[in-house]
Specification:
two-stranded antiparallel ribbon, 14 helices, phosphatidylglycerol-prolipoprotein diacylglyceryl transferase activity, Lgt, EC 2.5.1.145, membrane
């Protein structure tokens, strides 16, 4: 009976074209992120066209980088069937790879438009976390990125999850931690924090972005340890022990680490290591700039482009901030 209650990953067919829920959900996340950036950009006099163009270039860059990142760590799985590399609707998108692609695109585009990248990244930080909290539901529909096995009663009686979520967490007769939900809810709290912080006068340029990095990396580190599909590599024993030690608070709360085939995959989860590095980098960045910069630029300061206005070159003024 549980088989009939699981969600169909295919939303509908348009002739020979199959539309997957995974793609629809990712598209929805991108749209919500765009609307958030456009709305905040209005406060700084930035045209919606700027963010629309950024999205049109940033999404493909993020998807390509995310797929390359994932396939690079799962090459043994794909080398025998290279065409599978392009089947992103089946899952296999690494969020840290997506961030790398999006940030490379953002740096280049902001420079091209004459804006300070950190100022633009601050505006887009809530958009990033909003896209992630929505995008995780694509993993839910695909029955992927879940955690280790749990009792059905844990999901229904302790977490009080609705039946449609519990049923979807039944994978081949075994119920699993809904890590997609844990991360999504963690990001809901994160976006509220960002919304509050960006109204504060003390917030400096780049610090909202660092807050996003800190918050996401902190939650991702502990949630990643629950998953059974983590990308991993064979690292030194001291590093594996260090990572396991940092994850110990989860064991104190009664959680157990998700299965990791050390012999075949490695002993260090890639996303956990990246999370630790990102978290520390965010802290160092904020502290260093607070100590060294005497006359800082704040988040609420006017934002202008260094490029000449359209009235001077007849190109168009939609991307020039009026402040």
């Amino acid at each position: 009976m549980l088989e009939t209650l699981r969600l169909n990953p295919i939303a509908f067919d348009l002739g020979p074209i199959t539309v997957h829920w995974y793609g629809i959900i990712l598209g929805l996340g991108a749209l919500v992120g765009l609307l958030l950036a456009v709305q905040e950009g209005k406060r700084f006099g930035i045209s919606p066209d700027f963010f629309m163009d950024l999205l049109l270039m940033g999404v493909p860059s993020a998807v390509i980088a995310a797929r390359i990142y994932y396939v690079a760590f799962e090459w043994n799985r794909y080398k025998g069937d290279f065409l599978s590399v392009f089947k992103i609707w089946e899952g296999g998108i690494a969020i840290y790879g997506a961030l790398i692609g999006a940030f490379i695109c953002g740096i280049l585009y902001a420079r091209y438009k004459g804006y300070n990248f950190l100022r633009i990244a601050d505006i887009c930080a809530p958009s990033l976390i909003a896209g992630q909290l929505i995008g995780r539901w694509g993993n839910f529909v695909n029955q992927e990125a879940y955690g280790g096995p749990v009792e059905e009663s844990f999901l229904r009686d302790k977490l009080h999850l609705p039946g449609w979520i519990v049923d979807q967490m039944n994978v081949e007769g075994v119920f699993h931690h809904p890590t997609f939900l844990y991360e999504s809810l963690w990001n809901v709290v994160g976006i509220i924090i960002l919304f509050v912080l960006r109204r504060q006068k003390f917030l400096r340029a780049g610090e909202l972005l660092c807050t996003y990095f800190f918050w996401y990396a902190l939650g991702r580190f502990y949630i990643e340890g629950l998953r059974t599909d983590s990308l991993a590599f064979a690292g030194p024993d001291w590093l594996a022990s260090f990572m396991n030690g940092l994850w110990t608070p989860m064991e104190w709360m009664g959680f157990h680490a998700g299965y990791l085939n050390i012999a075949l995959e490695g002993n260090v989860r890639v996303s956990q290591l990246v999370s630790v590095v990102l978290l520390l980098a965010a802290i160092v960045f904020v502290v260093a700039r607070r100590v060294t910069i005497v006359q800082p630029v704040h988040y609420l300061d006017p934002l202008v482009s260094s490029k000449p206005k359209a009235s001077d070159n007849n190109i168009g003024s939609s991307d020039v901030a009026n402040s």
